[in-house]
């Protein structure tokens, strides 16, 4: 099955080439890459076009979405995607070479509509990195199972997700009313109505800890969990 990898990019001139380099080393080869320039004011767009011309022009699409927000960018990419699976990563992620192959394995089960895994903050202090990674592997894994047993939703982390395109379409696509926090929880909740959501503890995604560094670990965690519970217990329309 073809995979469409959608990457929102707002002012990512420093990171985007490293992300693309990692993607094009995947052991699973049937994919396309859609990078959505999300109202960048730096050199992101010119770097993308130079990369496309030099490397993987046939597999790389460069799109533009001037409405700022990851959900706007993801929805822009989704609407242009050709794959039966939509994969979401961020522009500062560096996926392992077997990331797609490992993620696609879960879709051998027909009931599975979404697969995600933990973030690995590779440039965080060692203690922060490992505590965060194993907290996600244990706590998020358990919470995902409980939420689905209760028919309340699921757990997905926005930049480490693979989704069945037809199920995402039935779920209404990405919720563009959400600018950032809560977007992944909202997607997981709506996808759980279409089938099974898997949180694969071994599907880790190396990503930058820049948000943790700029906002602080405690503050970022509190904001995340506030929006997580707000979305989970929000009454559905």
Defining traits:
two-stranded parallel ribbon; Spore Coat Polysaccharide Biosynthesis Protein SpsA, Chain A; 42% helix; 237 residues; single chain; seven-stranded mixed sheet
Can you lay out the helices and strands and say which pair or pack?
Elements: E1 3-9, H1 16-23, E2 31-37, H2 44-54, E3 60-64, H3 70-80, E4 85-89, H4 99-105, E5 112-116, E6 119-121, H5 126-149, E7 160-164, H6 165-170, H7 183-192, E8 196-199, E9 205-207, H8 210-215, H9 217-232
Parallel strand pairs: 1-2, 1-4, 2-3, 5-8, 6-9
Antiparallel strand pairs: 4-7, 5-7
Name the CATH superfamily assignment: Spore Coat Polysaccharide Biosynthesis Protein SpsA, Chain A
Count of spatially separate domains: 1
Helix content: 40-55%
Per DSSP E runs of 2 or more residues, the count of β-strands stands at 9
CATH hierarchy: architecture: Alpha-Beta Complex
Global mean pLDDT: 93
**Order of the strands making up the biggest sheet:** 3-2-1-4-7-5-8
**Which geometry do the CA atoms define?**
globular
Q: Order of helices and strands, N to C?
A: EHEHEHEHEEHEHHEEHH
Strand content: 15-25%
Counted by DSSP, the helix tally is 9
Strand pairing plus helix content: what structural class? alpha/beta
State the assembly state of the protein chains.
single chain
Low-confidence stretches: none
